[in-house]
Design goal:
The chain is built from five helices and 15 strands. It is mainly beta.
Length: 292
């Protein structure tokens, strides 16, 4: 029951290996459609009000960038005060931001900031790495100045089982198969994450059709949506012996209208099984149960 963000340029496709290897549920976190392999682009136009704090009460003045060389595992974080040369921190211009970025020694060693047209031909803040993508990767952390500048505005966000946290960047040293690609979001503990989830858009900048609600994370069993026979829910029978007992068995996460199995057991007066029937059954609202 987790929301993940993908800040890189290729889709994440997670296969949840379950009992039936011919029918493997796939969970996709789409790529960041608003950037290139070697650059990021802002998706809001200035001037920017960076005079206060972001939604998590962190200073809006600082832009945090993570980069890694060669092995793409040893992430190094740099934080730059992008208001350093601003005449008015409540209305920081794009040119003032790139001046502040390029004036930072560590930043300028690895990157160059500029104002360039992008897609819609409007001039935007662009950060480009100095090394090719085969030698270096970078991404912009959420929060701080990023909340207003929005380099990650079109980064993919999706809800996936917590199992796929093994592919998040924080787990890069813990799992050999880690793809080092995802950010595990924390909507219950971070207002920045919550806002990013609730305001997520598709690759074209349009609000996702059904949207996400960061306040109602689904559990892993709900995310299965009845697609695996490995995890079963059983409704009934009662604990008291009866002449007829009925059980409804259905796969985890199934919903009203889905296929289930209905088992009817006939008992005699001594609670000895006389006959037993297993039949196809269509789930009704009253059949659905919730784990404690």
């Amino acid at each position: 029951m987790s929301f993940f963000q993908n800040v890189f340029t290729s889709d994440f496709e997670g296969n949840w290996l379950l009992g039936d290897r011919h029918h493997i549920p796939k969970f996709v976190v789409r790529r960041n459609a608003g950037r290139g392999d070697e650059l990021v682009v802002s998706w809001t136009e200035g001037p920017y009000n960076l005079s206060s704090n972001d939604a998590d009460s962190t200073s809006s003045a600082n832009l945090k960038i993570e980069f890694a060389l060669h092995d793409f595992k040893s992430w190094v974080r740099i934080s730059i005060d992008v208001t350093a040369v601003a005449a008015n921190t409540s209305a920081v211009t794009a040119r003032e931001i790139i001046s502040a970025l390029n004036a930072d020694t560590i930043f300028f060693e690895r990157f160059v900031a500029s104002i360039e047209p992008w897609e819609d031909r409007n001039p935007r803040i662009m950060i480009r790495q100095r090394k090719p993508a085969t030698e270096m990767r970078f991404w912009v952390r959420n929060g701080g100045a990023e909340e207003k500048i929005q380099f990650n505005a079109r980064a993919g966000i999706a809800e996936s089982p917590v199992y796929f946290d093994r592919h998040s960047m924080k787990q890069r040293y813990d799992f050999k198969d880690c793809q080092n690609q995802l950010i595990l979001m924390n909507p219950s503990g971070s207002n920045v994450d919550l806002n990013n989830i609730n305001n997520a858009v598709d690759a074209h900048g349009k609000v996702i059709e059904f949207g996400w609600d960061g306040t109602t994370e689904l559990t892993d069993w709900e995310l299965l949506q009845g697609r695996s026979g490995l995890f079963q829910f059983t409704s009934g029978p009662g604990s008291t012996a009866d002449s007829t007992n009925t059980e409804i068995v259905y796969p985890s996460g199934a919903k009203t209208g889905d296929l289930a199995m209905k088992t009817v057991t006939i008992l005699d007066a001594s609670s000895v099984v006389v006959s037993k029937f297993e039949m196809p059954y269509t789930l009704e609202d009253s059949d659905l149960i919730t784990p404690p």
